[in-house]
Amino acid sequence: MSQESAFNPFATAQAEFDRIADLIGLDAGARQMLRSTQREYHFNIPVRMDDGSVQVFQGYRIQHNDARGPCKGGVRFHPQETVNTVRALAMWMTWKCAVADLPLGGGKGGVICDPHNLSPREQESLCRGWVRQASSNVGPVRDIPAPDMMTNAQHMLWMLDEYETIAGGRYPGAFTGKPVGMGGSLGRTEATGYGVVYTLREALKELEIKPRDTTASVQGFGNVAQYAIELYHRLGGKVVCVSCWDQNDEVSYSYVKPEGVDLEELRSITDHFGGIDKSRAKDLGYKVLPGEVWLSQEVDILIPAAIENQITSESVKLIHDKVKVLAEGANGPTAPEADPYLEEKGIFVIPDFLANAGGVTCSYFEQVQSNMNYFWELGEVLSKLDVKMTAAFYAVFDLSKKRDVSMRDAAYMLAIDRVAMGCRDRGWI
Ligand code: NAD
């Protein structure tokens, strides 16, 4: 059985959509429109390899819905990419942009390839080839791609350069995720992690808990985790455990320090993939334990900020009774079957596409700044980010109270309703 037929992430995303559509009593036209993708581009990208041969790669750009504005979403390079993964992620971007109340729709792109096996010149060719195929259907007023899994700022600059060559002008707002100084926004590095903590701060306020009286355990020590910890520490909280993947041992380890981890010290022994040097951590007094130890810590807050599907119907039972808030920094860290257990335990969940929407919000800021060709100071970016994340949190929180539903369902209800309204207002349905 092919990987694609074995697991279909788009069918899962559609099932989740159907469930929420029932909850909000969505009409048949809106259902039909929103459960499928609006436009799809599938294309071949021929690349002249370094040895002189030609290899043809399969590329995609999928636009799920652009009722609220031009589509936004990453381009992934992955050997196991499937069209249904790209469809699901495009739909998910629509909901994420809508919950953050950005004037953007949802899109996603991908190429089936393993960039580890491609030289920089071959990667550049692939990026330029992707743009040559997609250029008439993307751009600052249609669809704005960004980096994603295994793509980075360099890939975006190659793509932008090709786009501008075809378009015959400078359109820095056509791609985001560019380096600062070349059209990138200050604050993008911090945005997702800080965004998680802006929403966490509001959740604690509503629960009448002072951040300085809390402790937290974090899964992951990459971009999202490190900046979430930075801001959480600034609010007075104490992180007592972080975990990360160990490339050599091919297992994850938790790094525990009951008196609180020292962020800068840990950063100084971490590689740029978010992997901590185990033996140096031990020398610094961290208890290093394999497995899911981060999840069973006696803390107030859990922040999964690594990968998907970490809190399952089994592992959810490891969560300590003391835990009050789960702030989902990663995408999809909680399996749907675990949600009822979290509810039973009375844990306040800040769902992923609300908690980690700081990244796309800052990408939107980059697009705005690029279109104006005027760039904001860091403080301005972060204060605008705080305003957007706080407003998004309360829009979801208020709806969850009003309709007596979970924060996750409320976030979906709000997002789907906003997009349906956009389609209705345009007279599409
Ligand atoms: P990253 O690659 O910088 O860091 C990932 C971290 O997770 C690393 O420390 C790695 O060691 C750790 N990890 C991987 N597998 C693990 C495991 N099984 N157990 C424990 N730790 C493990 O990634 P990131 O940019 O910080 O992204 C983290 C998550 O947040 C992903 O789900 C990503 O999709 C999501 N996200 C990121 C952004 C962003 O702006 N970076 C935005 C939205 C969502």
Give a brief outline of the structure.
This protein is an alpha/beta fold and about 425 residues long.
Explain how this protein is built.
The protein is of the alpha/beta class and 429 residues long. It folds into two domains: 38-171, Leucine Dehydrogenase, chain A, domain 1 (Rossmann fold); 189-355, NAD(P)-binding Rossmann-like Domain (Rossmann fold). The protein is 43% helix and 18% strand. The chain has 15 helices and twelve strands. It has helices spanning 3-6, 9-24, 28-34, 83-99, 120-134, 153-167, 188-206, 223-234, 263-267, 278-283, 339-344, 352-355, 358-372, 378-403, 407-425, and strands spanning 39-48, 54-65, 71-78, 105-112, 143-147, 215-219, 238-246, 251-256, 287-290, 301-304, 325-327, 348-350. The strands form two sheets. It has a seven-stranded mixed β-sheet with strand order 9-8-7-6-10-11-12. Strands 1-2-4-3-5 form a five-stranded mixed β-sheet. Helix 2 (9-24) packs across helix 15 (407-425) and helix 7 packs parallel to helix 14 (378-403). It starts with a helix and ends with a helix. The model is unreliable at 1-5 (pLDDT under 50). The site of nicotinamide-adenine-dinucleotide has 22 residues, from helix 8 and strand 7. Residues 192, 219-225, 243-245, 252, 274-275, 305-307, 329-331, 356, 359 line the site of nicotinamide-adenine-dinucleotide.
